[in-house]
């Protein structure tokens, strides 16, 4: 059973984040998107991204490689957002981040464009970030210009270097996750990850059920300012009933 929550935060007037979750007997899909663009264009972009890719996966999941399904679905979403932006002046330049997990049995593929994140908690009780941000701050970290501590409060944290719908073609990062060693999976937009530390995230998720964890994480982020929209999904890794698994 997954938990999910999307909140406007304390400052923004509209919520430009979108979330999507779908569970079936054959596969599960979870996605978060953080839109950008003026005049509510970000909201349009993020909603369209979730809608298009969810529909694509539901129609094309049988007999295809999971990575191929995700890649093609994201390309379709990118094209629809780009075309809509090109044809409507009010939506010109809109785009969105997208981080999505396609889970089948104990195999999961994570696809990422932008700076929304996927984390896992493994059997060693470690919280690990699976995705890598496409952002200016990540580039500065990679070349050693700033430290992890500097990154958390960098004034240009909001500048992303890759997004869905801003160009005719999109490059997607794909990650394989073996769920046999995974207790929990977490998806979130940067409205959460910018304010909540890894240790805070871990403590909340490890001690609570999935929906309660989402609410507590959003509340914590808002207590620290809530300057951005905040979205989070928490779902199971290998074990469906995690309560006996993670407690001593």
Tell me what you see in this structure.
Residues 241-248 have low confidence and may be disordered. With 248 residues, this protein is of the alpha+beta class. 44% of the residues are buried. The protein has eight helices and eleven strands.
Question: What does the secondary structure layout of this molecule look like, with pairings?
Answer:
Blueprint: E1 3-7, E2 17-23, E3 28-36, H1 41-60, H2 66-87, E4 95-96, E5 98-104, E6 107-113, E7 117-122, E8 127-129, H3 136-142, H4 148-152, E9 173-178, E10 182-188, H5 190-193, H6 198-207, H7 210-223, E11 230-236, H8 243-246
Antiparallel strand pairs: 1-11, 2-3, 3-4, 3-5, 5-6, 6-9, 7-8, 7-10, 10-11
Helix pairs in contact: 1-2, 6-7
Order of helices and strands: EEEHHEEEEEHHEEHHHEH
**Sheet bearing the most strands, described?**
6 strands, antiparallel
Could you estimate the helical fraction of the residues in percent? 25-40%
Give the low-confidence spans.
Answer: 241-248
Structural class: alpha+beta
Mean pLDDT: 91
| Rg, Å, rounded | 17 Å
Helices, by number, come to 8
CA distance, first residue to last residue: 21 Å
The amount of beta strand, in percent, is 25-35%
Number of strands: 11
Shape by Cα distribution? globular
Outline:
With 248 residues, the chain is α+β, with helices and mostly antiparallel strands.
Q: Which terms would index this structure?
A:
248 residues; five-stranded antiparallel β-sheet; disordered C terminus
